[in-house]
Design goal:
By secondary structure, this protein is mainly alpha-helical. It is built from one helix and no strands.
């Protein structure tokens, strides 16, 4: 395996990890925004939200 191939593999692996991390952060932000908007966490019942 050449240095260039190793460099490419490393770059792709790092890119995948960054994408996964960004996705996780964005999902958490969306979850928090929905919780604030709805007034309850996922599957939590409130007086206004009974379903």
């Amino acid at each position: 395996m050449t240095k260039e191939e190793i460099s490419d593999m490393t770059r792709f692996a790092l890119s995948d990890r960054i994408c996964s991390a960004v996705k996780a952060v964005l999902e958490q932000v969306i979850e928090e925004e929905m919780t604030e908007h709805i007034g309850a966490r996922h599957r939590e019942k409130t007086d206004r939200r009974t379903v």
